[in-house]
Structures are given as structure tokens and as C-alpha cells.
Design a protein that fits this description.
With about 775 residues, this protein is α/β, with parallel strands linked by helices. It is about 30% helix and about 25% strand. It is built from 22 helices and 34 strands. The strands form eight sheets. It has a seven-stranded antiparallel β-sheet, with helices on one face. Strands 1-2-3-4-8-9 form a six-stranded mixed β-sheet. A six-stranded parallel β-sheet has the order 12-11-13-14-10-15, with helices on both faces. Strand 8, helix 6 and strand 9 form a beta-alpha-beta unit. The longest helix is centred in the last third of the chain and has 19 residues. The protein is globular and about 80 Å long.
Length: about 775
């Protein structure tokens, strides 16, 4: 997908007339249904002035092609600038240019990684030459039009504000600069020469359009590439944050072998390449002589990997490389050099069939290895026993005296590389608020079916090409066929639909020759990927009164994911309902993100199906709804965007120093200069009307100083229940009265948290209860 495409002459005219940034932004809106941030528009205005000076030369024909913000197929990454045409031998050429506004950089000990300064602080990032080369590699390897027509891609980087200092293009990075030259502040003429060496003539064909609309190679899947990867071949190129995480892991693993334990926690959503990175690390560290193992709690990935590797490696070798998370109960400390834990959100406290072995899987893994890396997605915890959250792993590592490091993955390689689909899905399932963005077939092949039979048959047709499509379902039906192979499990009588759950067999269901007629569940596909996935959403999730409602009692008792739910309901009903709601929604989110190319859905509840349809309908007009972005560039954080937290997370993070993840980022204007102490939470209820309405996104300043009297604040109080926020959190107007002793010392007599709506009563906190009360933030304003 290309955001902006023109000839050189049109591009030059657009820059000269000072319309280029607006033209790009309008094209951005047309393609993605939203405008970009003011900071990115300013970046375009700045960088395009420099590119205008570079391309505006007589020797470069007016008709050569120019493209800006070209999204690399199957990823969420975009190439900044492309020039297309013919070289001196009249062969098709692309020059791709990675643009940076950096002014300085610092070297690191990690290959291809530099440190540079953004407006929010310094950060490690991939070297611009590596970044440009990796984008060219992706285009060359995945676009059949480029391959078939022999289009050569010439990558480079242009840091137009960077004064030469011998670092960014120095000896430490010479291998990367050789692959993609880097041009600095005084190198405009050199960049012109580079472009002219590769593009001298116009092409009779629109090369960029042909590439953008060309055929793609079939998506490469990890399981199919394992054998080659274990033999040391590079099957997957790492992009941007993947490269940063990979080099950080290798560096820490080596450091740990001769010193203090090192723990790396890597957070990333579906399709961010966690498993690919894990296997790459397994190969690399083993080659370095560091005894390493790949660890998962879920057996399904290990079973698939074992089948794929059989014939190339002995079974004992495979079983030693890929192990379960319960293998370290009795191992001696520091037995392994490195343990690489994939799907770490699935880790449990204890091990064994009856959860009666060991004490803590996380601590047992850390104890066993000098270096351990945990790949985590908190939104894929789908069992009551799952304890592997980012916060808890960090806590365990610190208790064991390890150095802890945190990294984040945002590069998207599933769901057609569409961050928009993942954002839309979180909104549709009401996991977190985002705008009702436009979801088109260009983004991702998502379809709602009125009949499970029709959906199943369409998946079977997709499966005929390569056996990489399957149907899965929520665990709402008993597993009758486990005892009677003639019995049917999933039955939807009105459509005469009858299917069985996947059999236990020697061949994993996901890759079985004849398993397409069986239905899988979360336990057979989590951690794996398909081309197309069909999802049957059972009666455990429905749509009522504009809410996605879950019901743990509609789950089959055969499903162990909610084991303990009923007993918890008797003791702590609110906690039980919240836990079940999170597990059910996380389960369907995980199922609906298994497909690299498409997701087809049948809902047992017709209202839920209609809810999805409304959110996928084409919109001809767009409202000014607040939009939560899952990821934004570092250079706009706390400048144009603030992080959004759940109210509970905000109270933990800003009140008690816990490590929590933001729900996303919101663009904020009109509240003054932003800073790192500011954050956003969404109000709930009507107690603060008319100042704050139900659903408003509210900006707060953390840890406010000075008097709070008469101010609206976000507070946490453990001894009171606020109906608006269903628990120990409130947004209210603060009022307090004090008493003084004979020495002039004061203490609170009472604190009143006052609603602005007279239909609600204030919350009164006495002096004795003030220790369980905390002011988290001061209200600044509402996001428009």
C-alpha cells in the first residue's frame, strides 16, 4: 500500500507550493480512515524539503516515479521515500531512502544497534543502514513482481540533520553501511550521485504501481522453516524493534555466563515475531556454545515442531531442544546457559497434571539458567492458572537477585501486517477502547458468516491449496467423542451442523493430513499460525445493551481454563466475573489472530454478529471520536500523545511503582505542554456530570503537589466501594478538614470525595482510614 505516489515533477511542485504534507495526510486518511499526528506532519514538512533539494536536478527526468510511505507487504512497516525508473542499461530500479531527523548517535556493543535521542529521551534503535537494507530484503523476497521482472532495489539512509562525527558511518558499522550507504548533513550531492547511478531514465511502465499491485510470495511460516533455521540459514530478516530485542538478548546471554543472572522480558502482541525471535535465539546461542533450550508450557507448538524436524534430526535431539515449562523442578542452579521461554503468559505456579509438583515455574526457570528470556503477551492469558504476566515475572526475577531488562515488540507480521485489524479487534471485543476504524479487505480478509456450514466450507476451500487453514471454536461444547469416536461434539442443530473436536493422534491437528474436518480449540493453536482461520464464537460471548457480555457458565466443564470459577463465584463473585470475562475475551482475541491472511467468523449470538458487521461497514463520513493508537513513534510520545491506562493500572503504576502496560496512546491537544507525568484514563458513570461525562477520556497529572482542596482528583481507597468504577477507585472533587494539636501539627479529621452530580453521595474517609487512601493524579481536562 502506497500513501503518496507521483512523478518527480509533481512531487517537486507539491513541495514548492507547500502542499506536500497536507497531500500526504489526506492520502493517509483516504487509505487508513484517519489522520496522522501533527508531529509526523511536521516531520514530513521538514524531510520533504531536503528531498526536494536532492531530486530537483536536471539530470533526473521529470517522469521518474516517487512514492512516500510505502507499506511493506505482510508487515506494518513503511518505507519513507522511493524513486523508481531505469538505470543506464535500461533495467528497472528502485532506490529506497530511509529518512532520519537525527542530530547525533552513540555506538553500542550490539551489532547494528545505535543509541539516539528522541524528544522523550534516549533509546536503542536499529542503525539506519540496517533498517533500509532489511526493508529492501523484505521487498525483494516477498514480492514476486520484483523477482520476476528483475527489479533491483538499492537501499540507503539520509540523515539530513546529522553532522559527520565518525560514529554513524564509522568502522563499527561499516558492514551495514556497505549494504546501504548512509548520507549525512553535507552529503546532498553524494546522494544525488547515488540516485543517478541507479536511476537515469523514466520507465514506460509505472514500476511502483506494478509492485504495489503485484503478486506476493506465499507467507512463510515458522514451522515450515525450522529445519533450515536450525542449520543456520537466515529464513526471517529481523526488522527494527526485532533487531533491537535480538541483539539485546544475545548480549545479555553472553554477559550472564560469567557473572550475575540476567532476565529479559519481551512484551509483544499477536504476530510480532516472538516465536521467530525465540527460535533464532536458540540457534544463535547454541552456535555460540551456550547450552540453550526453547521452553513452552503449551505442548501444541512443540508437537508441531517435532513433526516438522523429524527425519532431519534424532528425536532425542529435538526433545532436548524443545521442552515443557515443568521440566525444571529438580534441576540444579545454573545448569543451562540460556532458557528461551515462548508464550510465557501461559506459565503456571506449579507443574504436573494435578498442579502438585514444584513451587513456581518462573522461579524454577530463572534458577536453572544463567540467562532467561520470557516472551509475553498479557492479553493471551487464557487460563485461571496462568500467572506469567510482565509484572509477576519481573517481581520473581528481582526476588531471585537477577538483573531485569524490559523490551517491547510492535512490528506486525500477522493479520496481513495490519495494526488496524488488531486495534479494531480489541475495540470490537471491548478489551480496550479505540475508534471504530474502517476495516477493508485491503487491510485484512475478515468476514462474518450467518451459517457455520458456509463458513466451514469456505475454510475447507482455502485449505485445499496448502493445508494451512483450520476452524477453531470457543470451548462451549463437551468433548463427547473423546470417549465415543462416533459421537459429535459441536452441534448447531438449526444449520444441521455437527463436528468433532480434534482427536488425540500421533499427528498434530494443525498440520494433520485429514484434520480439516475436525475443530480445534485454543489449546491446539495458541502459539501457532495459519493462513486462514475460521472461528465459531459460542454462547459464552454475546452482545446485549451495547456491551460484549461473557458468561463463564456457558463454557463446557471439560474445559480446564475456568477451573475454580464456580467456587470463586461463591467467595468473590466480582473477582470471579472479571477473571472469567478476561479469559473468555482473551481466548477469542487469540483465536481471531491466528490467521496470517484472513479470519472468518460465525457467532452463535446473532446480535454479536451484527455488532461485528456494524464495525466493519464502510463509512463515508468520519466522526471526531477519540482514537487509541496501539503503538506510536517514540518522537511523538509526551509531545502529541499521552499513554492511556485502565484506571486500575494507573493507580498501580503511578501510585505504587508497578510496571504496567498502557492500553495505547491518545493524541491530546488543548491542555498545555505535555510531559511524562501525564496520563489518560477513561471515566465511567455519571457522578461527575456535567464536568466529566460517562466514557470521557480524562487527562491527569501524576503525584500532584500542593493543596488538593477543591480539585478533581483520581484516588484509590481500599475500604470503600464506588459504583461508578466498580471498586476502590474514584474520580471526585477533593475536600478535607484538618485539626491541629498544641504544637501546631495537623492531621486530617476527614476527607470527602464529592460527586458533582447531586444524585450521588460523597465518599467520606476518616482519619483512621487515611492510610488506605491515596491521591494518584490531578485532573487536567478532557480529551476532545
Amino acid at each position: 500500500m502506497i500513501i503518496y505516489r507521483a512523478t518527480k515533477k509533481q512531487f517537486v511542485d507539491d513541495v514548492f507550493n507547500n502542499t506536500i504534507a497536507n497531500n500526504i495526510d489526506e492520502a493517509f486518511f483516504e487509505h487508513l480512515g484517519r489522520h496522522t499526528s501533527p508531529n509526523e506532519i511536521r516531520s514530513w514538512e521538514n524531510s520533504m524539503q531536503f528531498m526536494y533539494k536532492v531530486v530537483n536536478m536536471r539530470e533526473l527526468p521529470d517522469g521518474v516515479g516517487v512514492a512516500i510511505e510505502y507499506q511493506i507487504p505482510l508487515t506494518a512497516k513503511r518505507v519513507d521515500f522511493i524513486i523508481s525508473g531505469l538505470n543506464a542499461q535500461k533495467r528497472a530500479q528502485l532506490v529506497i531512502i530511509e529518512l532520519k531527523q537525527w542530530e547525533e548517535a552513540e555506538p553500542t556493543q550490539k551489532p547494528g544497534i545505535v543509541v539516539t535521542r528522541f524528544q522523550h529521551g534516549k533509546a536503542e534503535v536499529a542503525h539506519p543502514s540496517y533498517q533500509a537494507w532489511s526493508y529492501a530484503y523484505m521487498l525483494s523476497n516477498y514480492n514476486l513482481t520484483i523477482q520476476e521482472q528483475g527489479v533491483e532495489i538499492c537501499p540507503c539512509a539520509y540523515l539530513h540533520n546529522y553532522t559527520p562525527d565518525g560514529i554513524i558511518n564509522g568502522k563499527l558499522y561499516e558492514d551495514y553501511v556497505a549494504k546501504a550507504p548512509v548520507f549525512l548533513k553535507n552529503d546532498a550531492a553524494r546522494l544525488q550521485d547515488y540516485i543517478l547511478r541507479h536511476v537515469r531514465y523514466c520507465s514506460p511502465e509505472d514500476i511502483i504501481w506494478k509492485i504495489d499491485n503485484g503478486r506476493l510470495r506465499p507467507s512463510k511460516q515458522l514451522a515450515d522453516s525450522l529445519t533450515s533455521m536450525l542449520k543456520g540459514n537466515d529464513e526471517f530478516v529481523m526488522l527494527d524493534d526485532q533487531k533491537v530485542v535480538y541483539e539485546a538478548a544475545v548480549y545479555l546471554a553472553k554477559k550472564a555466563q560469567g557473572g550475575k543472572k540476567q532476565v529479559l522480558i519481551v512484551e509483544g502482541g499477536p504476530g510480532t515475531g516472538k516465536s521467530v525471535l525465540a527460535v533464532n535465539l536458540l540457534v544463535s546461542l547454541t552456535a555460540e556454545g551456550i547450552a540453550s533450550q526453547y521452553v513452552t508450557k503449551n505442548s501444541a507448538p512443540r508437537a508441531v515442531y517435532s513433526v516438522k524436524l523429524s527425519g532431519s534430526y534424532k528425536k532425542s535431539y529435538i526433545n532436548n531442544l524443545f521442552v515443557g515449562s515443568g521440566n525444571f523442578i529438580e534441576t540444579m542452579p545454573n545448569t543451562m546457559g540460556a532458557l528461551i521461554v515462548d508464550e510465557a503468559h501461559r506459565l503456571n505456579m506449579k507443574s504436573g497434571m494435578f498442579s502438585n509438583l514444584g513451587e513456581n515455574q518462573i522461579k524454577e526457570i530463572i534458577k536453572t539458567a544463567h540467562f532467561s528470556v520470557f516472551f509475553v503477551d498479557d492479553c493471551q492469558r487464557i487460563h485461571m492458572k496462568d500467572v506469567g504476566s510482565v509484572h509477576y515475572i519481573k517481581q520473581c526475577a528481582e526476588e531471585m537477585g537477577a538483573d531485569v531488562h524490559l523490551e517491547h515488540l510492535s512490528s506486525q507480521f500477522r493479520c496481513n501486517g495490519s495494526d488496524g485489524y488488531l486495534s479494531w479487534l480489541d475495540n470490537a471485543l471491548q478489551i480496550r477502547e479505540t475508534a471504530n476504524i474502517r476495516l477493508t479487505e485491503e487491510d485484512y480478509d475478515f468476514r462474518i458468516f450467518d451459517s457455520p456450514t458456509e463458513m466451514f466450507e469456505e475454510i475447507k476451500r482455502k485449505n485445499q491449496s496448502n493445508n494451512k487453514s483450520r476452524v477453531v471454536a470457543g470451548y462451549c461444547w463437551d468433548w463427547k467423542s473423546k470417549q465415543d469416536h462416533r459421537a459429535y461434539d459441536i452441534e448447531i442443530p438449526q444449520f444441521f451442523f455437527r463436528k468433532q473436536w480434534n482427536f488425540n493422534s500421533s499427528e498434530p491437528w494443525l498440520i494433520g493430513e485429514h484434520s480439516i474436518d475436525q475443530i480445534g480449540c485454543i489449546h491446539t493453536c495458541q502459539g501457532l499460525e495459519l493462513d486462514y482461520v475460521g472461528v465459531i464464537i459460542g454462547p459464552d460471548m454475546v452482545y446485549r445493551n451495547n456491551r460484549v457480555v461473557t458468561d463463564g457458565f456457558k463454557r463446557s466443564p471439560n474445559d480446564q481454563s475456568l477451573k475454580g470459577f464456580k467456587s470463586m463465584m461463591a467467595r468473590k463473585p466480582n473477582e470471579a466475573l472479571q477473571a472469567a470475562d478476561a479469559i473468555i475475551k482473551n481466548t477469542y482475541r487469540t483465536l481471531m489472530t491466528r490467521g496470517m491472511k484472513g479470519c472468518f467468523v460465525y457467532c452463535c449470538d446473532s446480535s454479536l454478529a451484527e455488532h461485528f458487521r456494524e464495525l466493519t461497514a464502510e463509512k463515508t463520513e468520519y466522526t471526531n471520536e477519540v482514537r487509541i493508537e496501539p503503538v506510536v513513534n517514540d518522537d511523538v510520545k509526551y509531545i502529541d500523545f499521552l499513554p492511556v491506562y485502565s484506571i486500575k493500572a494507573a493507580c498501580g503504576y503511578f501510585g505504587e511503582g508497578e510496571d504496567v502496560s498502557e492500553l495505547g496512546w491518545i493524541q491530546v491537544e488543548g491542555v498545555g505542554k505535555l510531559n511524562r507525568n501525564m496520563f489518560v484514563v477513561q471515566a465511567s458513570g455519571h457522578s461527575m456530570e456535567p464536568r466529566i461525562n460517562d466514557g470521557d477520556f480524562c487527562v491527569f497529572r501524576a503525584n500532584p503537589a500542593g493543596s488538593r482542596q477543591g480539585k478533581i482528583v483520581l484516588v484509590q481507597h481500599h475500604n470503600y466501594y464506588d459504583s461508578d468504577f466498580a471498586g476502590a477507585y474514584s474520580i471526585k472533587e477533593y475536600s478535607s478538614s484538618k485539626s491541629y494539636d498544641e504544637f501546631g501539627n495537623w492531621e486530617h479529621e476527614k476527607i470527602e470525595l464529592k460527586p458533582l452530580n447531586n444524585d450521588y453521595n460523597p465518599i467520606v474517609i476518616t482519619a483512621e482510614e487515611s492510610d488506605d487512601f491515596r491521591v494518584i493524579g490531578e485532573f487536567i481536562g478532557v480529551v476532545d
